[in-house]
């Protein structure tokens, strides 16, 4: 029997101290991280960051392009590596965003990942087949209030 995944906020958000809030990218949705040569000057300092797995290390301060092809194949978001910690199977990255537009885009992309995770969960454990729209409406009603707000 399959164990049910935790779909609440503990799976996607954690707080470090009183200042930083992180959205953990779900690993079942491949994420593409490409280094950028340009140096971006932050126009916005947010307490919200993305945490994701990488097979390759990055340096703190590296600028990257983030893409989640299975969710939005044409959308890229620019971010800056804040931390890179070695793990038993690669690296865990902390990524900050240089402006409010990038922050809002990554937040929406991550919400779409969690909505698709919810859709799959409902199909596997409840036997219900939801459309993208129905899954989004249900997920919003149950979990959107737990998702961190970009600030």
Molecular structure report:
The chain is α+β, with helices and mostly antiparallel strands and 151 residues long. It has one domain. The protein is 26% helix and 30% strand. It is built from 2 helices and 7 strands. It has a 7-stranded mixed sheet. Helix 1 packs across helix 2. The longest helix has 27 residues.
Topology diagram in text:
Layout: E1 13-16, E2 20-24, E3 32-36, E4 48-54, E5 63-67, E6 76-87, E7 90-96, H1 100-126, H2 132-143
Parallel strand pairs: 2-4
Antiparallel strand pairs: 1-2, 3-5, 4-7, 5-6, 6-7
| Uncertain residue ranges | 12-17
| Strand order within the widest beta sheet | 1-2-4-7-6-5-3
Basic shape = globular
Please summarize the sheet with the most strands. Answer: 7 strands, mixed
Distance between the termini: 41 Å
- DSSP strand tally: 7
Order of helices and strands: EEEEEEEHH
β-strand amount: 25-35%
Helix content: 25-40%
Mean pLDDT: 85
Tally of helical runs: 2
Short description:
With 151 residues, this protein is an alpha+beta fold. The protein has helices at residues 100-126, 132-143, and strands at 13-16, 20-24, 32-36, 48-54, 63-67, 76-87, 90-96.
List keywords for this structure.
single chain; 151 residues; alpha+beta; 7-stranded mixed sheet; 7 strands; 30% strand
């Amino acid at each position: 029997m399959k164990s049910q995944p935790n779909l609440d906020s503990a799976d996607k958000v954690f707080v470090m101290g009183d200042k930083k809030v992180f959205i953990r990218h779900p690993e079942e949705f491949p994420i593409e991280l490409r280094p950028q040569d340009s140096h971006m000057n932050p126009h916005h300092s947010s307490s919200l960051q993305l945490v994701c797995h990488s097979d390759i290390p990055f340096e703190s301060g590296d600028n990257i392009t983030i893409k989640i092809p299975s969710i939005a194949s044409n959308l890229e978001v620019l971010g800056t590596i804040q931390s890179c910690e070695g793990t038993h199977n690669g690296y865990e990255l902390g990524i900050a965003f240089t402006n409010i537009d990038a922050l809002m885009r990554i937040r929406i992309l991550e919400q779409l990942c969690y909505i698709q995770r919810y859709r799959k969960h409902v199909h596997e454990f409840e036997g219900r087949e939801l459309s993208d729209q129905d899954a989004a409406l249900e997920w919003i009603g149950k979990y959107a209030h737990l998702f961190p707000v970009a600030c």
